[in-house]
Design brief:
Layout: H1 5-17, H2 24-32, E1 53-54, E2 60-61, H3 64-74, E3 81-85, H4 91-97, E4 102-107, H5 110-122, E5 128-132, E6 145-150, H6 159-163, E7 165-175, E8 182-190, E9 193-202
């Protein structure tokens, strides 16, 4: 038993009881993954609280509920091939790795990408390929993907990501015309095109890139 086991169990109870996360596989994985390893040293005591936390380079680690909800909306199987845009400190990446067959993760900020890669190695995660690049272009060489998760808010749907989604696949992305607030959208690719569902308000850092917000 580690010193964070009780706060971690409280986090899981909140996800199950308050937020009505139904997928026990996701709850089991989130109960096993040490979230405190993915936040700055000074914030470790807050790692299992019900909110997003700042990490390096003005980025954030998402609120546990948002991690669980986005993962649930992807309906992953052990065969799923997943693209993650905005790996950040690597927490969501690890959650995906425990539920899918293969994860391709992209992080735009070099120091975050390097730190996430080190954490993946430390936790002996073998089924993730991570690179530093503009995530809004996706990762064409490995397409099509069964599921795509975008952990930053975009003004519109990045066309390359839609193109790289396989028929029957899901893209979960925060969309909003304002950099501060978005709505969580799930896109399903069908034989005839794309269907969208809205899962309500959320708040993410902006998705910077060629097909997102313009930035440095």
């Amino acid at each position: 038993m580690d010193e964070y086991q009780i706060p971690r169990e409280r986090m899981i109870e909140r996800l199950r009881e308050h937020y009505k996360i139904k997928d026990e596989k996701i709850l089991d994985v989130m109960n096993r993954v040490p979230r405190h390893l993915f936040v700055p040293e000074a914030l470790k005591a807050q790692a299992y609280k019900d909110n997003a936390l700042p990490i390096a380079s003005n980025q954030t680690i998402s609120q546990p509920f948002i991690v669980a909800r986005m993962t649930e909306l992807l309906e992953l199987t052990p065969q799923s091939k997943v693209l993650e845009i905005g790996a950040g400190s690597g927490y969501q990446t690890v959650i995906l790795s425990q539920l899918a067959g293969k994860v391709y993760a992209i992080e735009r900020v070099p120091n975050l990408a390097n730190e996430a890669r080190e954490r993946l190695q430390r936790l002996n995660i073998q089924n993730v390929t991570l690179r530093c690049a503009d995530g809004t272009n996706g990762w064409e060489i490995y397409a099509p993907f069964d599921a795509i998760l975008v952990a930053a808010g975009s003004p519109t749907m990045p066309q390359p990501l839609l193109n790289q989604l396989k028929i029957g696949g899901w893209l979960v992305i925060p969309i909003g015309q304002d950099q501060k607030t978005q709505n969580l959208i799930r896109v399903t690719r069908t034989e005839k095109g794309f269907q969208t569902e809205d899962f309500g308000a959320c708040a993410f850092v902006p998705l910077i890139g060629e097909h997102g917000w313009q930035g440095d």
